[in-house]
Request: fold
Amino acid sequence: MSTEVSRADLLRPLHTTTKQYWLLFVAALVVTLVFVYAYSLQLRHGLIVTGLADWGSGGGVTWGIYVGGFVWWVGIAHGGIILSAAVRLFKMERYTPVARLAELLTIGALSMAGLFIVIHLGRPDRVVTSIIAAYPETVHTSPLVWDVTVITLYFVLTGTYLLLTLRHDIHQLRGQLPDRLDPVYTLLTVGYTESEDRVSQRLVWWLALGIIILAPLLLHGGVIPWLFALLPSMPGWYGAVQGPQFLTIALTSAIGSVLVLALAFRKAYGWEHIITDDVFRGLGLWLGLFAMLFLWLQLQQVITGVFAAPIDVDQATAAKLNDPIYWVAIFGVILALAYLAAQALQPHVFSLYGTVAAGILVVTATLIEKTFFVVEGLMYPSFGLYASVPGEYTPSWVELSAVAGSLAMVVIFFLIVAKVIPVVELHAIEGEVES
Reply:
């Protein structure tokens, strides 16, 4: 960092509350309340209020943007913790200022992924009757229960990972933290001694290693894509390519989301000297790399689907290629990649807002692509599930309110967390100031 950074800079969000902060909080709260109202209608009348249809000649799909949103949020969560783990494991100190933002993003995104599971079940009590009560049997056979298991595992791993790094910071900054939150800080640092720092650093390193190893095996490279890839009756889903495809989507959507968060905190609290342009340049390069891999894996699926493919695979691929929604997602990623590539080849092209805009474009495109992937996979199975003409699916306002509400709740989560703990690690500036 070129200019001196003080601990007061890191603590500015805890002590500074602007009119813009409250406007954003109220706006997010209103959107959340709209979702709560929409969900209350669903609880009262059932899933008929959504754009989801029953199996049968009526057409349509039983999975839509609820499952697409679930996959999207899980991807953001897994990509976020992978980013943070990579910073620690490979000593990528350039990105330390955004490591904790990525960890908090994982907590928020995992919570929203769990929420979408509950919403999609129709009745919340099915979490108990269909998952928890039957867990010893269903864990062997149900992809849904696999998802719940993996999400719970990563929630615990991420919470532990975050707490270990947070205890040191709270202890060091205790005298400068808000007095009204002393009970919270006491709880978070219970039993803390300075001698635990070295042990905690070692534990964090091992947790980071475990996260990096588990990512391609169990998370967005494993269990989540297996939900789709292991079903040969759905040619649009089936195949080994889904694992790496989902992993690239997780990483692109997570990096894009971190770019948005980084810019928001930088602008709100004058952190240009903490979250520097160099951080955005680097994240932009990584975003471009994973966006390119995303497009390459899409090409693999298209080529194998149109060249001498089985009839059902050929039909599913043709339907995908003839749908403009698919191309909206693909060209969104292509446009972002084109800008990021130009920026990499010609550094003077770099723009802070352009890089973040590319991130937003990719995040939006991945939501569209994953929802389209879910819907089209159900529309074109290998067996005669529907009449000769497949049905249609259009997300209802109830479903769209769930997506908007989940985004609003994550915004509220960050607004509240920023008033309780430092969202940038003390370690990010420890070498710049005296303790």
Remarks:
- Residues 7-17+51-395+419-428 form a domain with the Formate dehydrogenase/DMSO reductase fold fold (CATH 1.20.1630.10).
- DSSP finds 16 helices and no strands in the chain.
- The chain has a mean pLDDT of 88.
